């Protein structure tokens, strides 16, 4: 018996679902095949043995057109590594508004044909951006469609194109990874704004990040400049002193002792705030060294004070402190240092200082981040306190939620038992009243109800209705 292949195009009320099934039945029932009561739009039965070869090839190729939905359904059942490959290829293709992994593979081939170094940076940017979106628990359907990868792809490619160091410069991987990791953060923040008007963000995250990088570094800016060994040993002391100086620069002070006293004051209030202040200053210092900033600016703490504020704000003040929040705060500190460099150069055209504009902009972007990760819990402004108290507040909130859920479950179970008891009670009382004429108390009011009277009233009301209907019929 030849296998009869059935081609079904089914859809439910939520989304179109495309099915290709082969069954050994002549008249298959769509509901039996799918197992769900879907609406059948089209049923097409054909015999694969009698089908022409060309037609079979065209049908096979048809599955790889459009958004490759059968392929996508198969990928969802595979391991994460295979899913990531599909997400990355779709992310490359989404630059051209194409949700097709095969199209993405062809585009990657064209990029390697142009320049392998550019293609490698583009793939790295797409991969880092996609993994970052998964770690931040962004919408999984958007991730699988490549919508969190195309901005990272453009960032990686254009950073390699604009680099004055030429091809195969390995230090370019570090800013590529950093900016690609920030793509989902900027995308989520912009989506929170544009979603009010139901418009897409297009490639705004790419434009923001690549302009930020170029304005902060310049096209011919060196990365990680090499210093002679003799000068390197002499530079260690001001490098270490720039950490407390970066904290003191929040108040405009460039004295390391003043910064140390401020750190002691932070430690007195909250060890978490003190720790994140040090981390933020180190992040600004490392970013300044990586971007080959003037040593005087790095040692004077001008690269650190905005990162200090950003790291404190995200690391436990406005977010409840978890290890995921800690990583987010460190990322925000590096991003803020980038913004500081770009803002300083832009404001210098107007002969204005950067002040704390970088801190405000970068922190607001990270606070507008929307994530399905329960570990990234942004606190309401009315509940914001110091990090340790915020963490206790979160624990109490979770404990209250668990207690409320358990009490609701117990209440539902007790209510079910009570309803069952009342039904049995009422049935028994009706039986006793009807056949034994014995009163039986029902409920907890203490009153003695007589279900027999209720039963007689119902039957009397029924007889009255029948009598009234008969009289109405006689009049007619």
TrEMBL record:
Assigned keywords, A-Z: Cell membrane, Glycoprotein, Membrane, Transmembrane, Transmembrane helix
Record field: compositional bias (Basic and acidic residues): 453-476
Claim: Transmembrane helix is one of the keywords in the record: yes
GO molecular-function terms, A-Z: urea transmembrane transporter activity
TM spans (from-to): 87-112, 118-136, 143-162, 168-190, 202-223, 235-253, 260-290, 302-320, 327-344, 350-369
The reaction(s) this protein catalyses: urea(in) = urea(out)
Record region (Disordered): 451-476
Top-rank taxon: Eukaryota
Membrane topology recorded in Swiss-Prot or TrEMBL: Multi-pass membrane protein
Alphabetical list of Pfam families matching this protein: UT
GO terms for cellular component: plasma membrane
Family statement: Belongs to the urea transporter family.
PANTHER family per record: FACILITATED UREA TRANSPORTER (PTHR10464:SF15), UREA TRANSPORTER (PTHR10464)
Name the UniProt record assigns to this protein: Urea transporter
Organism listed in the record: Oryzias sinensis
Classification of source organism: Eukaryota, Metazoa, Chordata, Craniata, Vertebrata
């Amino acid at each position: 018996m030849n296998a009869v292949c059935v081609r079904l195009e089914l859809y439910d009320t939520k989304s179109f679902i495309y099915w290709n099934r082969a069954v050994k039945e002549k008249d298959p029932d769509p509901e039996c095949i799918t197992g769900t009561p879907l609406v059948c739009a089209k049923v097409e039965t054909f015999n694969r043995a009698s089908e022409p070869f060309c037609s079979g090839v065209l049908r096979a190729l048809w599955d790889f057109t459009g958004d490759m939905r059968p392929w996508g359904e198969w990928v969802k059942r595979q391991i994460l590594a295979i899913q990531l490959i599909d997400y990355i290829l779709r992310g490359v293709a989404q630059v051209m508004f194409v949700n097709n992994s095969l199209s993405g593979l062809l585009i990657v081939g064209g990029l390697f044909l142009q320049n392998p170094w550019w293609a490698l940076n583009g793939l790295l940017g797409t991969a880092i951006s996609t993994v970052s979106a998964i770690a931040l628990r962004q919408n999984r359907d958007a991730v699988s469609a490549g919508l969190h990868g195309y901005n990272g792809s453009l960032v990686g490619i254009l950073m390699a194109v604009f680099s004055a160091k030429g091809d195969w410069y390995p230090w370019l991987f570090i800013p590529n990874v950093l900016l690609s990791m920030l793509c989902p953060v900027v995308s989520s923040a912009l989506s929170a704004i544009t979603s009010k008007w139901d418009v897409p963000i297009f490639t705004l995250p790419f434009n923001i990040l690549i302009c930020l990088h170029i304005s902060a570094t310049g096209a011919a800016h060196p990365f990680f400049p090499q210093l002679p060994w003799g000068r390197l040993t002499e530079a260690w002391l001001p490098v270490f002193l720039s950490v407390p100086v970066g904290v003191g620069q929040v108040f405009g002070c460039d004295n390391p002792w003043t910064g140390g006293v401020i750190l002691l004051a932070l430690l007195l209030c909250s060890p978490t705030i003190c720790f994140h202040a040090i981390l933020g200053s180190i992040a600004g210092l490392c970013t300044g060294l990586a971007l080959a900033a003037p040593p005087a600016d790095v040692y004077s703490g001008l690269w650190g004070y905005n990162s200090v504020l950003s790291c404190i704000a995200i690391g436990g003040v406005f977010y409840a402190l978890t290890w995921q929040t800690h990583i987010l705060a460190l990322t925000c500190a590096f991003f803020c240092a980038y913004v500081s460099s770009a803002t300083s150069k832009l404001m210098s055209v107007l002969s204005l200082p950067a002040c704390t504009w970088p801190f405000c902009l970068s922190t607001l972007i990270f606070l507008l981040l929307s994530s399905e990760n329960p570990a990234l819990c942004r606190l309401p402004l009315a509940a914001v306190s110091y990090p340790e108290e915020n963490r206790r507040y979160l624990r109490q909130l979770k404990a209250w939620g668990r207690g409320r859920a358990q009490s609701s479950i117990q209440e539902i179970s007790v209510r079910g038992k009570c309803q069952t008891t009342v039904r049995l009670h009422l049935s028994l009382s009706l039986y006793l009243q009807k056949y034994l004429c014995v009163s039986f108390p029902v409920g907890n009011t203490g009153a003695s109800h007589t279900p027999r009277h209720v039963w007689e009233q119902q039957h009397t009301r029924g007889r009255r209705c029948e009598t009234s209907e008969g009289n109405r019929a006689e009049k007619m």
